[in-house]
Write a structure and sequence with these properties.
mainly alpha
Length: 178
Amino acid sequence: MLRIYRGTTPSPEPDEWGTMFIDGLKFLVVGIIYALPIIILELVLMGAGFVMYMQKTPFPNPASMMELFGAALAGVILLLVLAVIIGLFSAIGYVRFARTGSIGEAFNFGAITEQIGRIGWITYIVALIIVAILVGIVEFICLLIPYVGLILLILLLPFIILFTARYITLVYDSAGTA
């Protein structure tokens, strides 16, 4: 995947296993760092929800449970907004990391914002929505098939990942270089 992000065409053969392993570990670190704000916010919201629930027991009335439900819904919306924002930056951040080899460049938000600006914010967001819909349709169809669908999805997953990586790379390269 990182080789595709680097712009290698056609898709490279899996060789140089040691280098790919080290690159994969670095990529994992970048992914975890991007996921940290979501994980932290989720833990905070779950903790707050648990505390609120414990204060309402043992005999919660329906009105107080609706307050808890409303707070949980607001938390989910907040998590979704944060995940979308992080997703916008992480897609370009992954390509920057692959091309420079620097974990720091994956989080160079000024350069990431500049690249998205060159692509065009609307074009970029529409491109990400299109790939999400395409991948979602394939995954949905696979999961509709009883028993075999999950196995089929697992078999298709490497191809879906490579397709998504190539798509993101083409979107990244559509802006040209600075």
